[in-house]
Amino acid sequence: MNEKLKAQLPMRKRVPDEKGFFGKFGGSFVPPELQRQMDEISHAYQVICRSHDFISQLRDIRKHFQGRPTPVYYCKNLSTKIGGARIYLKREDLNHTGAHKLNHCMGEALLAKHLGKKKLIAETGAGQHGVALATAGAYFGIETEIHMGEVDIQKEAPNVARMRILGAKIVPVTFGDKTLKEAVDSAFDSYLKDPVHSIYCIGSVVGPHPFPMMVREFQHVVGVEAREQFLEMTGELPDNVVACVGGGSNSAGIFSGFLDDPVELWGVEPLGRGPKYGDNAASLAYGTEGVMHGFNSIMIKDEKGEPGRVYSVASGLDYPSSGPEHAYWNSIGRTNAVGADDKDAIDAFYRLSRMEGIIPALESAHAVAFALKLAKERPMEDILVNLSGRGDKDMDFVIANYPEYLDKPLEW
């Protein structure tokens, strides 16, 4: 396609380029032997994703197995109580397995099936990606291996149990901080031992090309549905779309449906305990450009320039980088990188639970927390939040670590 025609394409179709770059971010920085596998996966995806059989099968899975489309819901109680903007939720917590992760896991597993792969390998933090991939492995009859940090195994016990019931092998990660970054390291090491017969089903819009692009495309269904549903409900587009950003798969999915619209997009990073190094995982706010896990993006670094120590109350957000497309969108001003700290997230967790009867995942609670603040600042606007997951997995942790909220009335 010539450059004139390409410039007229929707933003989502203009990037990445053929080498996987979103502007200067992205690419594939892996050893030559692994690059051959990346090239094979990229070529196969480009061919298979246009196949009628692949598209038809994936749509059938989404409708009859996943339960899509998930609804958009108006938070009448919360909106009335806060006295500000109208808050809506894209209910990805109602997607089968309780989060958005199944959208790309079923797509990646279906691709693995077409490629003749014998094993699915992945990392997980909060456990939602692990549960989703274990579900996909059971559905397609493919062996599944999930790498998870020991800290997160203890924190997210319900999801660990679900993965085991679904037949996945859990590999505890015992080095470093024993959380998401180390789980990615461990999963990559396992994949490198046999990349011919296995496939690394990465859990977000990160990693070497083609994974950031592939995961975004599998998650794009969230944005497509949300845009159509919001128009049908209200007759117009939302003024604001809000989603949490760790690696950024849920936010990439919903943002991609609104990129070419006059809609403000807000990516909410985890501010954790504060701005001090090691107390947050807000890479877009506090990071600098660097390469990790095979891709170039913005990341938090230690004193040696290596991927640094990060923290968040939400296990799915404590990653020292963000997806390269998020870095690109932020660099050109298409998205707004904002944040919510632990206290904000826990407060929003309880507010949504008590006002709407919806218990959110701690990851999603970060987006809800920012939406509550934005609603007060912009009382005449509509805010659509991607509720990327449900909070069943977090209830024991929240009760054990924040018991004071159980009997305390909410203050407004």
Poorly predicted runs are none
Widest sheet, order of strands: 3-4-14-9-10-13
Count of DSSP-assigned helices = 17
Beta strand count: 14
The total tally of domains equals 2
Structural shape: globular
Q: In CATH terms, what is the architecture of the largest domain?
A: 3-Layer(aba) Sandwich
Q: Overall mean pLDDT score?
A: 95
* CATH class (first level) name of the largest domain: Alpha Beta
Biggest sheet: strands, sense, closure? 6 strands, mixed
Distance between the termini: 55 Å
Radius of gyration, in Å, reads 20 Å
Q: How is the CATH topology of the largest domain named? A: Rossmann fold
**Proportion in β-strands:** 15-25%
Structural class: alpha/beta
Helix content: 40-55%
Keywords:
single chain, 412 residues, alpha/beta, Rossmann fold, 2 domains, six-stranded mixed beta sheet, four-stranded parallel beta sheet, 17 helices, 45% helix, globular
